[in-house]
UniProtKB/TrEMBL annotation:
Superkingdom classification of source: Bacteria
Lineage, top ranks: Bacteria, Pseudomonadati, Pseudomonadota, Alphaproteobacteria, Rhodobacterales
Protein name: Pre (Mob) type recombination enzyme
Ranges of Basic and acidic residues composition bias in the record: 415-425
Alphabetical list of Gene3D superfamilies matching this protein: 3.30.930.30
Record region (Disordered): 227-249, 307-326, 406-425
Length: 425
């Protein structure tokens, strides 16, 4: 099995975060997992972090050192003013008290360093699988050596975190320096003393060269691209904004929450559609088995339980399936209702046609009888003929009234025959 790791290039990631002295306590809480944002942390990890540089009480020592710098600077300043007999300045400084040993800035006097790589680079750990030096250990060795080479004793703390999504190294830089000369000498914290903090591009070049042995590359040189675009008169690419780890996690949690809500909504829609479909099937089952029937109430089609359904053991389960979805029942009512109305309308049309045919047949029979009566009168005496004609008029009137009341079509081919009054013959 090959151990070549050059098949895909991944960049080494370097970030700096400003750090104030009062933030060290929160930093330690997060390191020890005793407080703060722990939602991204694997609480089941046996060895959550590994200390690489500094003692366990490094934060307390750093706090004490900064306090000592404040006190020593104040004492040295008062001593210088005393030697120069600047009484008014001494009184003023006594009122002002101790000053922090750094110049005002928006980022703070210290720096937190974060070193890592893409999680796929760590997971594709063939060497670790074979029991050799793992990529985490290789990365750790390079990170420690780069920190010491770049910051020397100013690295007061470094650790490796293993219980988060991606292995990474944290370090804290306490950038000690001395400013001024003679009696004006002061011990200060000045991050810009380190070129890699002063110039971000220098820092990216530095780690890119240092980690090249692990086949990790330098991060994207956006500054060079911006300079090149400006030199060509083109619109430069936008500057990439690096979110703080806490901000990034908050953004990810919001995204995960939104995705989860969208998934839950989709699942609810799927369940609702399944319930609708099952309710429609339940109605179909009930109609086919004769447990329910369709009826029209106040112009609306309704489902009603049949007498067989009232005594069937299958009815309760069928009713539960139908009740689960009002939307499904409404769709079933519209679908089955339309079919039921069409069936009813066709049945009514057939019944009407059959009734008309029966009336026509009955009329023809009466007409034939009337014709026979007319033929018979030719063979009877005049007195009997007058009686028959009188009775026949009454019979013809009844026939015509029957025809009109039943609504026989006047467009029928036999209409002329039916409208004739036999008495007029």
């Amino acid at each position: 099995m090959s151990t070549d790791i050059t098949s895909k290039k991944y960049p080494v990631v370097l970030r700096f975060e400003g750090l104030w002295r009062h933030q060290l306590a929160c930093y330690e809480m997060h390191r020890k997992r005793t407080g703060g944002d722990l939602g991204h942390v694997d609480q089941g990890c046996i060895h959550p972090y590994k200390r690489l540089i500094g003692e366990e009480d490094w934060a307390r020592k750093a706090q004490a050192e900064v306090a000592q710098m404040r006190a020593e600077n104040f004492a040295d300043e008062l001593d210088g003013l005393t030697r120069r007999k600047r009484k008014s300045d001494i009184r003023r400084r006594m009122v002002e008290g101790l000053k922090e040993p750094w110049r005002n800035s928006k980022h703070g006097p210290m720096r937190e360093v974060i070193l890592t790589a893409h999680k796929d680079w760590f997971e594709d750990d063939i060497d670790g699988f074979l029991g050799l030096t793992s990529r985490e250990e290789q990365f750790e060795e390079h990170a420690v050596s780069w920190l010491k080479e770049t910051f020397s004793d100013d690295v007061v703390h470094a650790r490796a975190d293993r219980e988060e999504t991606t292995y990474h190294v944290h370090a804290v830089i306490l950038p000690r320096t001395v400013s001024g000369e003679g009696s004006a000498t002061r011990r200060m914290l000045q991050p810009s003393k380190h070129e890699v903090i002063k110039d971000y591009e220098v820092a990216q070049d530095s780690v890119g060269k240092w980690f090249a042995g692990l086949e990790l590359t330098r991060g994207e040189n956006r500054a060079a691209k911006i300079r090149e675009a400006r030199s060509k008169g083109e619109t430069p690419p936008p500057k990439k904004r690096h979110s703080r780890t806490q901000e990034w996690r908050a953004e990810q949690e919001l995204k995960i929450k939104a995705d989860r809500e969208a998934l839950e909504l989709q699942e609810q829609k799927v369940v609702s559609r399944e319930e609708d479909a099952d309710a429609i099937l339940a109605v179909a089952d009930g109609l086919s088995s004769g447990l329910i029937k369709l009826d029209e109430v106040d112009g609306a089609v309704q489902f009603k339980q049949t007498e067989a359904g009232k005594h069937s053991p299958d009815s309760p389960g069928l009713a539960d399936r139908i009740r689960k979805s009002k939307g499904g029942v409404e769709r079933a009512r519209r679908a089955f209702g339309r079919a039921w109305r069409r069936t009813t309308e066709r049945a009514d049309a057939r019944a009407l046609a059959e009734a008309k045919a029966k009336l026509v047949k009955e009329y023809e029979e009466i007409r034939a009888a009337d014709t026979a009566i007319v033929n018979i009168t030719d063979m009877l005496p005049y007195r009997l003929v007058r009686q028959i004609v009188k009775a026949r008029k009454s019979l013809t009137k009844s026939i015509l009234e029957l025809k009109r009341s039943r609504g026989l079509s006047s467009g029928d081919p036999k209409a002329n025959l039916r409208n004739e009054d036999p008495a007029e013959k």
